[in-house]
Amino acid sequence: MADRPATVGDVHRIAAAMPHVKRLEGPKGNSIYQVGGKSFVFFRTPQPDCADPDSGERWADVIMLWVESESDKLALTQDPASPFFSTSHFDGHPSVLVRASRLAEIGLTELTELVQDAWLSRASNRRAASWLAAQGAQG
Prior knowledge:
- The chain is of the alpha+beta class.
- The protein has one domain (8-48, 55-130).
- It is built from four helices and six strands; from the N terminus they run αββββαββαα.
- The protein has helices at residues 8-17, 70-77, 108-122, 125-138; strands spanning 21-25, 31-35, 38-43, 62-66, 84-85, 95-99.
- Strand 1 and strand 2 form a beta hairpin.
- The longest helix is centred in the C-terminal third of the chain and has 15 residues, at 108-122.
- The mean pLDDT is 94.
- This is MmcQ/YjbR family DNA-binding protein.
């Protein structure tokens, strides 16, 4: 089957399917997915660092995904055409941002890998090793 464009529903489904995940609701109803008390996918509320450059209107559809390293972050954000980006607010923070309105530019396979990698970057070593071992047994 051909890879299809990713959706916001996919983000929720993939994040929720990872082991030991707790979904929290932020103060403004935004979803936050955590493993071991550490966020790995975070639906941001509108913030001044993510706004339309012409109108100044804050984007209400920004999703933050943790990444393993600065090099992973750069690999996703260095191409200006990429749907992934960062802002100066996240300088030195191991995460990338993507607007829900641009998720269709990402295939479901890539999104799955990104969410799984986000989970791995935040899960305990024991949980990560256990999950990776189970994936090897299934693959």
